């Protein structure tokens, strides 16, 4: 994994840096910390001649803090620090053109990166979308959801998907049972997340699961998607997971498809 971390010294940027270091320890790879100084904001700035020099002194302190975080948490990991001046989103995009990065970690203030970056962008903190259906049994996926939510300070949106296209007008009772089972699955997962201190919301959507997942990613500005599946049971959610993974043009958010049991 090759990670680019957009760093500007804010608390969110520090969280993104620590999260990135954690990913390197889990999965290996390398990271580049791109220290951003927004020099463009001082063009025609009327706050006096010392404003930029004071801001640069503050930026230098932020850079020292980043290096300290790397020393304390990133021992043994390949991490490089680069410094750039300019408009932050533009500098990040320019840097992405020169490197083969797999993912960008960023504070949410640079949200435009989600639509323009050539690779997935995770915002810290963000929103984790967890689609489920009537077959859902989060099982071991629960721990991964909790780890990701805790590490990024993110909230979770539980998306219940109801495949109404599979049921005809004479199958209302069957469809109602599927809805009941889906709501029960959602409730069971939500209770486990809330018991571990994760903030979670729920929403139910009828339609083709893959389309509803892709629409929910945009609607809730999801920073990542975690789909618990059932390896031993075919389902519309399993099919949807495969389709969402292939929709690189419509979805530039990381998708984790995890076994639920």
Can you tell me about this structure?
There is one protein chain. With about 260 residues, the protein is α/β, with parallel strands linked by helices. The chain has two domains: about 1-125, HUPs (Rossmann fold, 3-Layer(aba) Sandwich), CATH 3.40.50; about 125-260, Rossmann fold. Helix content is about 45%, strand content about 25%. The protein is built from eight helices and ten strands. The chain has helices at about 10-25, 50-75, 90-100, 115, 140-150, 170-195, 210-220, 235-245, and strands at about 1-5, 30-35, 80-85, 105, 120-125, 125-130, 155-160, 200-205, 225-230, 255-260. The strands form two sheets. It has a five-stranded parallel β-sheet with strand order 3-2-1-4-5, with helices on both faces. Strand 4, helix 4 and strand 5 form a beta-alpha-beta unit. Helix 1 (about 10-25) runs parallel beside helix 2. The mean pLDDT is about 85.
Defining traits:
single chain; 261 residues; alpha/beta; Rossmann fold; 2 domains; five-stranded parallel sheet; 10 strands; elongated
């Amino acid at each position: 994994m090759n990670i680019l971390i957009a760093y500007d010294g804010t608390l969110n940027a520090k969280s993104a840096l620590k999260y990135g270091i954690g990913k390197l320890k889990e999965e290996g790879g390398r990271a580049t910390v791109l220290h951003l100084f927004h020099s463009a904001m001082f063009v025609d700035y009327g706050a006096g001649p010392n404003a930029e020099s004071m801001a640069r002194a503050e930026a230098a302190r932020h850079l020292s803090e980043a290096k300290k975080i790397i020393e304390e948490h990133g021992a043994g990991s390949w991490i490089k620090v680069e410094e750039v001046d300019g408009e932050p989103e533009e500098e990040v995009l320019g840097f992405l053109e020169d490197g083969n990065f797999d993912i960008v970690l960023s504070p949410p203030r640079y949200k435009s990166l989600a639509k323009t970056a050539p690779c997935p962008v995770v915002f810290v903190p963000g929103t984790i979308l967890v689609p489920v259906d009537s077959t859902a049994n989060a099982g071991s996926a629960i721990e991964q959801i909790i780890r990701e939510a805790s590490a990024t300070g993110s909230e979770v949106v539980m998306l219940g998907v109801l495949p109404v296209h599979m049921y005809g007008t004479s199958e209302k009772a069957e469809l109602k049972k599927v809805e009941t089972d889906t709501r029960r699955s959602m409730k069971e997962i939500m209770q486990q997340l809330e018991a571990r201190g994760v903030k979670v919301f729920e929403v139910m959507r009828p339609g083709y699961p893959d389309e509803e997942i892709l629409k929910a990613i945009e609607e809730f500005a999801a920073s990542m998607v975690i789909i618990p599946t059932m390896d031993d049971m075919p389902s519309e959610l399993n099919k949807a997971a495969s389709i969402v993974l292939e929709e690189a043009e419509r979805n530039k958010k990381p998708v984790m498809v995890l076994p639920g049991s």
